[in-house]
Amino acid sequence: LRFLKIMKAKLNYNVKNNSDLLDKIKKLKKKEWKKGLYEKQSWGHPLHRIGPYVGRIKPAFAHFLIKYLTEEGQTILDPFCGIGTIPLESSLMKRNSIGFDLNPYAIHIAEAKCNIEIDLQKKISEIEKIKINLSGYNLDKIPEWVKNYYNPRTLKEILFFLDYFKKKKDKFLYGCLLAISQGHRPGHLSKPCAWTIPYKPRPNDPGEYRSVKPRLIAKIKRNFEETNFKRGKMKIQKKDARKLKNISDKSIDAIITSPPYLNTLDYVNSHRLRLAICGHYENKKLVPLKNKLIQHKKTYLSEMEKVIFQFNRVLKKNSLCCLVVGDHFDSSGKVINTYQLLLSIFKKYNFDFIDIIEDKIPVNKSVQKKTLKIKSDRIFVLRKNA
Question: What percent of the chain has pLDDT over 90?
Fold first, then answer.
């Protein structure tokens, strides 16, 4: 009789949990991130706008995934965090978050979002007091294509300040400066070029001198906002999603992530100028980085299986895993739904399919892609069952 009571209680618990989850999925299907103020790219905390990244999800999109699939106080893992959109939004929503990525530029921007418990006026005063010394900065080793984007004195100042902030371990200012090192507005430090992809500047542009200090101060004023409310902990590390050795078994409450798009986006070349500015401009660094990324057609599924194995290990029982995956087109133009390729692997590692939500995304010609066809993101929700 006692056994029957226990089993009945478990059954009722599971029925209630399933009902609650299906209700949350139903709310997700309303796609609130496409309505009203949420539709704007500028929605959300100013820290979301520190720097750009190809393929990043909108903060409002992250907001609703976190809102409906997790609870306050839980620990959320994003092993492909890019510039930290999901970890930051999770932290702002009183969740604890962990974000990993392999791209050095992305990590610098994501780390800047962790370090915001600052006195803004004190920070500005510190910047103003820095004595600039460019005597040790020779541009001979900097590639010509990089120098073509800058006035020589401006480039030397950028390198000086990045070195200064690195020595001071000031990740917030390092990330903010790296972000404005490229762009098309007067507040940016390069010759006018795109904010995201570094298209070549005009060949007849001599490059005006642009002082770093005033532009950096203006930048931190734009991106800093007092956080008088309680936030969750946020941790960012340069780690490989296939090797989550520093995360204990069954310690994660939920995984929300957007893995690299299969054979579609070039996460290295698209950020080549900012990568070069922070010291990654030689092939001996960039080629190994490209080879490490999980997006190559021949190895995508085998490498993602290593990731899913880790998901199974670190997730708690009955916890949710949400992936935002994009379509892929084969050589004939046929649509390949990435989630269908991944589903069989997830089932192999004790994950139950819950639901999928299709979200058509507009073509963005300013982002480097191998196709300009209309495609969809698919919100792929699963639950670990053991």
Answer: 70
Q: What angle do CA 364, 324, 351 make, to 5 degrees?
A: 165
Measure the CA–CA gap between 100 and 240, rounded to whole angstroms.
7
> What does the pLDDT average to over 73-88?
97
Q: What is the mean pLDDT of residues 181-197?
A: 94
pLDDT at 337 exceeding the cut of 90: no
Query: What is the pLDDT averaged over residues 73-96?
Result: 97
Residue 319 identity? S
Region of residue 318 (phi > 0: left; psi between -120 and 50: alpha; otherwise: beta): left
The amino acid occupying position 44 is G
Q: Residue 116: what pLDDT? A: 66
User: Hey, what's the torsion of the CAs at 153, 155, 158, 163, to 10 degrees?
Assistant: -100
- For residue 147, count CB atoms less than 10 angstroms from its CB and return exposed for 0-12, middle for 13-18, buried for 19 or more: middle
Token pair for residue 222?
Answer: 């734009």
Instruction: Please provide the size of the chain in residues.
Output: 386
Q: Where are the alpha helices (DSSP H) in the chain?
A: 2-28, 59-69, 85-92, 104-114, 120-129, 144-147, 152-168, 171-180, 212-223, 272-277, 283-292, 300-314, 338-348
